[in-house]
Amino acid sequence: MHNTELETSVDIAKELGLSEEEFLQVENVLGRKPNSTELRVISMLWSEPCSFKHAYKWLETLNNAGNGGMMNEQAEEESWIEIERGLGCTFSMKAVNSHPGVSPPQSAGEGSADMYRRIVARGARPVAALNSLRFGDLANGPVKQTIRDSVNGIGENSRVMGVPMVGGEVAFHSGYQSNNLVNLLAIGLTQRDKMIGPTTGSPGNDVYLAGPTTFSHQSENASTVEAASPDPQIKPASTAHASDSFSGKILMEAVLAAAEACMLVGLQNITTGGMAQAMSELCTGSGTGIQLHLDDLLHDNGEVPPETVLLSANPGRMVFVAKKESEGAIREIFEKWEVACTKIGEVTDSGMLECFYLSEKRLSLPTGMLVRGVGTPVYEAPTSKPRYLNEVRRFNLNRVKTPSNIVETAKKLFASPNLSSKRWLFEQFDSMVRNNNMGTNAPADAAVIRVEGSDKLLALSVDGNASYTAADPYIGGMIAVAEAARNITCSGGVPTAISYCFNFGSPHHPESNYLFVNAIRGIGEACRKFNVPVLPGDVSFERISDTDQKADPFPPTPVIGMLGVIDDPELHTSYLFKEDGDLIYMLGNLSNDLGSSAYLHSVVGVKYSPSPEFDLYEEFEMQKHIRKLIRRKIVRSAHDVSDGGLFTNLMESAIASDKGFNVETVDTFRKDCFLFGEGQSRIVITIAPEHEDTLQNYLINNNVSFSKLGEVFGDVAIIDEENFGSISIWKRIFEDTLS
Question: DSSP character for 240?
Fold first, then answer.
C-alpha cells in the first residue's frame, strides 16, 4: 500500500464500530494491518445492517424450509420462482424504517425505489408492490404527519416508476412512536433465460457504474456517524437522500433494455454497503475479483476520498458486468435513455477487490471477506426470557367481564384505528398502473394480479401481528406465516414462497434477542410445514433506549410477504357476500379464547395476555380442505378470521358487498370470545343452499370442524336475533374513523 494512507489501530477501529476482536480478525485474514480506506470499508460491510452478523445464523435455519417447485438452495441464490414453462417471478422485501432525524418521505420514497432496483437486478420488471406500515399512537399529533409523509413518499415513487401498489396493511402502537416501520414488498416477472444473477462471468469482462457519478462528501456510510448511536453495534440511519423518482425510472428502463438485449453478464443494486458490497457480491459466486479505477469518478468531486465512492448509498445507481465487445452497444442504449454509464474497472482472476486512484492502490481486500455470511463475522448473542412474559402467564380470562351491551362494544372495537378502514390511506397509492390488479372489483384476502403471457394469477399477501409475537414469539412467528398462507388460500391460490422483514429490538438486549430467535424458529417450522422456500429479505434491529421509561417497548414485528399462484382465473375467490340466502359456515375449532386480541387491547384495556390458540397441523389441514372446496366450485366467498375476530370478518364481507347477515353464536361459548376472539385456523365461507349437503358430507368425511352460522340476509346485521343496525351505519363507522 502507498504510504499516503493513514496508519490504523484498534482505537481507530473502535471509533468506526469494530471491536478489538474484529480488528485482530482483519489483521489475521490480511496478514497485515488494513490501511485507513480498507478499515472504513470493512467497518461498514461488517456492520449489522450490511452483514446481519447477529441474525445470519438464524436466517440460515430458514434455508431448508421447502422447495416450492424448485430446490430451495436455487431459490435462495437466485430469488426466482418458476410459474410455468420458463416464466417466473422474483420478489423480495425491504425494511425502510424511519428514525428520529430522518425525513419520512425521503426515507420511504428512496426505500421503495431501492426495492424496485432489487427486482431489476435480477433482470425482471417490477409489476406490483405491497407495503406493511407501522406507526405510533394516532393520538400523537406528529404521527399523523409522519403517516402522510411516508405515504406520499411511497406513492410518488410508485406512480413514477409505473408500479401499482396493490395491497398492504397498517397498524398503530405507541411502541412505534420513535421507530416507524415501512416494510415493502415488490415482485417482478421475467423469463428464465432473461434472468440475471449476481455474477461477473469470466476474467476480462468490463465493470460499469450506471447512474450519477457525483458523490457527496457526506456519504451514506454510517461509519462516519456511528457516534450518534446509543448502541455502538447498531449503525444508525443517516439523513436520507432525496429520492429522484424520474431518474430512477429511466435508470430502470435503460438497465432492462440492456438486459433484454442480452448484453449484461451480471447486475447488482447498490444499497446500504455501497459499491464495495455490490461488487463483492458479484465476485463471490464466480470466484473472481474486480479491479477498480476511480480517477474518472473522482476528478470532478473535489476532495472526496475513495471510501466515499466505494460506500456511498446515494440513490439511483447500479453496477453491472458486460463483455468487452458489448461496450459500443451498451453506450448506445444508455445514451438513448440519457443515463450516465461509466466503465470503472474489469473482472480479474485474483479473488480480490482492488481499488486504484491516482496510480495508487488504495484498497486490496478478498471479496469473500466483505460478503455476508462468507467472510463477515457471525455471532450468537445471549438470550433471556422477557420479564413481562410473567404477566402474560398470569392472565385469567375469568377476570374479564363479559360486556353488558354487545352492540356498543362491537362499535367501539370496530372503530378502533387498527380495525377501521385504511381506505383513505391506500387511495393515495395508484393501484391500477398496468391494469393487472384483480382486487378492485373483487377484493380478496390477498392481492391478486394477472400475469401477462399466462392464464395463471399471482396472489400476494403481507402479514405480521406484533401482539402475537410479543406474547409468544415461537407461536407468533408460526402465525405470521400461517395467516399469510391463509390469505393466499382464501383467494383461491396455493402458497408458493415467502420473503420477510424482521423488525426487532437490538440483539444486544438479551430479552429482545430472545424474541427474535424464537420467532425465527416458529417461522422456519411453519415454512417447512407449508413446504415454501424462503427468499432473501431484510432484518432491521431497532435501537432501544433503556432510559426512556415513557415509551412502550419496541413491538417485535416479523412481517411475512407471501407469494401464491392461482392456477385458473375461475378459482379466484373474493370475500364479498354474493346472494341473499347464501349460507354462512365457519370452518375450524371454536374456543373460549381472547388472547392478544384487538378486543382485549383496545376495548378492555388488557396489556398482557397469551397468544391466540393455534395448532400448526390443524392450520395446514384447514387450508388444504379450503383449497379443495374452492376447486370443486362449492365456495362462493372465503374470508379468514384474524384481527377483530369473527365479528370483524362478517362485517368486512357485508360492507364490501352492501349485504347483511343473520347469524347465531354457539351458546356453550362466551359471546365475546365467539365474536371477538382471534383463535386461529378459522375461515368463514358462503355457499349456495343447494351445495349444503355436499359441503357437510365433505367436512364430516374429512373430520373438519365446522359451525353453521346463518345466512346472507337483507341489509342489516343480526346476531342471536338482536338487530345490530344497518350495514350502511357500520360502513360509515368503518370508513370514516381513520380518514
Answer: P
In this prediction, residue 102 carries a pLDDT of 55
Distances (CA, A) of 614 to 152, 169, 388, 470: 38, 22, 21, 15
Which three cell numbers, joined as nine digits, stand for 672? 365475546
Count of C-beta atoms within a 10 Å radius of residue 269: 21
C-alpha to C-alpha distance for 147 and 19, rounded to whole angstroms: 38
d(CA 248, CA 339) in angstroms, rounded, equals 10
Q: Which three cell numbers stand for residue 298?
A: 473522482
Query: CA separation (Å) from 68 to 72, 305, 411?
Result: 8, 46, 42
Distance of CA 518 to the CA centre of its chain: 19
Per-residue pLDDT reduced to its tens digit, 312-330: 887 689 999 999 999 999 9
Q: How far apart are CA 279 and CA 270, in angstroms?
A: 9
Q: Cell 349485504: give the residue.
A: 659
Contacts of 483 (CB under 8 A, 6+ apart): 463, 465, 640, 642, 680
Q: What pLDDT score was predicted for residue 152?
A: 83
Is it the case that residue 69 has pLDDT exceeding 60? no
Contacts of 710 (CB under 8 A, 6+ apart): 583, 584, 661, 662, 663, 664, 718
- Taking 60 as the threshold, does the pLDDT of residue 74 lie above it? no
Measured distance CA(377)–CA(33) in Å, rounded: 18
* Beta carbons within 8 Å of 352's beta carbon, 6+ residues apart: 289, 364, 365, 366, 367
Cα separation, 499 vs 431, in Å, equals 21
Region of poorest pLDDT, from 132-136, 289-293, 390-394, 431-435? 431-435
- Count the residues in the chain: 739
- The model's pLDDT over 132-180, given as tens digits with 9 standing for 90+, comes to 999 998 887 788 888 888 888 888 888 888 899 998 899 999 899 888 8
Can you tell me the distance from the alpha carbon of 152 to that of 167, in angstroms, rounded to the nearest whole number?
A: 16
Q: Of 574, 573, 575, 565, which Cα lies nearest the Cα of 455?
A: 565
